Amino acid sequence: MHVIIMGPPGAGKGTQAEKIVNEFSLVHVSTGDMFRAAIKNETEMGLKAKEYIDKGELVPDEIVVGVVKERLSRPDCQEGVLLDGFPRTLEQAEALDDVMSELNMKTDAVISIDVDEDELLNRLTGRRVCRNCGTTYHINFNPPKVRNICDHCGGELYQRSDDTVETVKERLNVYKKQTLPMIDYYKRGGVFASIDGSRDIDEVFADVASYLRDVQENTKDK
Length: 222
Ligand code: ADP
Ligand code: AMP
Fold this sequence. Notes:
binds adenosine-5'-diphosphate; 49% helix; five-stranded parallel β-sheet
């Protein structure tokens, strides 16, 4: 299965992605995570991407599409992938179709996680991430057992530099302007499901998993 998870920043894509890849044995491909790793390693691409990320803007399509194409070309992606944070523009969605058809893949499902704007702001400004393994927490909604320490690996938690109120507002504007218009593209493709992300993490996951089980059954039949 090749699945896309989309939704505004803070909707819970990364949180759901962690559960989905475990349950459905998919490879998690998060463009945001790939950029953050490249920034940490100070690669040329990472430094370029950082200029945009720090401002809350989208990294240019030609950089993102190149990164995703290289990742999807690796053998581990043949069996199944969960794309998280990509595509984010109509142009990226079209480019993804081209890349997928070159690689004999197709998009089996697109899940959009919907949450209203006030809640997104709360979620993003309270988000903390493990510096070591990348697990995501929230200071109130999903806190670690010990303050600032990752439950899984004992790593230190940090706040993403783009999770400030000002940058979050810009990222939400960018989502509305550049990403929302892409939804119609997938609605027309008939593989789109919209899920209410305002509920508890496990309730959201129950819906996501039930939808993906149906998709998986249909994919098997073909
Ligand atoms: P995204 O990947 O879409 O930007 P995250 O998965 O990182 O979003 O979630 C953003 C923040 O909201 C994190 O701090 C996370 O712990 C928290 N969160 C995720 N899902 C929920 C939920 N259903 N209810 C409350 N908080 C949530
Ligand atoms: P995320 O981790 O998904 O919230 O992404 C963090 C930041 O990385 C975004 O605000 C963008 O600047 C950049 N980014 C991630 N994915 C993409 C993409 N598909 N297109 C453009 N920029 C992206």
